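In response to reviewer comment 3 from the previous cycle, which asked for concrete evidence that the modeling workflow produces usable outputs, we include below a single protein chain processed end to end. The sequence was submitted unchanged, and the resulting structure tokens are shown without manual editing.
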Amino acid sequence: MGEQQDVGGTDRHRGSGTVAQQATDGGVEARLALAQAPGTTHLTLIDLAADPSPVVRRAVASRPDAPAQALRPLTRDHDREVREAVARNPSTSIANLLRLVRDADRWVRWAVAGNPACDTSVRRVMVQTADKELRGLLAESRELEPELAARLVGDVSPEVRERLAAHTHDPEVITALLADRTARVRKGLARNPRTTAVQRGALAGDPVPDVRAALVAAVALDEADLRRLVDDRSVQVRMAVATSELVPAHLRRLLVDDSDELVAGAAREFRPGSVTSPVVRPPRVGHRGGRGRSGDARR
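The workflow returned the following structure tokens.
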């Protein structure tokens, strides 16, 4: 985590007023340029953190080298995108992240989940939140502590458990989720490349076709398991076998005369690279597109 250094009180106003006044006289564009300039001093950044324009304050909030005295008041800024920028800033202190993870705005809370400075104390708050998406983001974290993962295994939301199943690296968590009664959770586990051959064999025999189809599409299976799935009673599963990049050609050829013409056609016409395999998606970290509003730079 980047260090935040307080600027001494004696030097707080020494020379900073002149620079800030000159920037103010130049308008929003000049102050924004100053807020973004690599050489801008900490004293000036502290002044700019109180700028009347949110676009200038967001620029300060986004700087990894911004001092603590600039970021601290921005955690309470009335503009949510300013607070969101602080929540993403890797130099934001743990105390400020703890404040922001409880923010009233969901995008601010979700941004905290993607901050590399987020530590165990912040994640302990996340696991207790009523925000299902925030718990889901926590479930996808590579740094998730075993104690918190164990709590998420029993999460009330199937979506949270599914996201944990798809991303966990913890063998004990994988074993526990194999017994989950909700099919979408086991489907998440089927997409997890960290399952063992034995666990994949169990998933290949799952009673729900969605789970078996997801498994074939996402991970390499033993030939014995694949031969079972070639003869699967579900057209959906056999179609997954016919179109998976991970199925050897000699097994795919067993489906060219399948009783379902769509499956047979898919097996005959399959070309490597023609199908996008639904592998585990990267963790979501609360990013959103199109956040900027027209005219922000002049506010």
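The radius of gyration is 26 Å. We consider this sufficient to address the reviewer's concern, and the full set will be provided in the supplementary archive.
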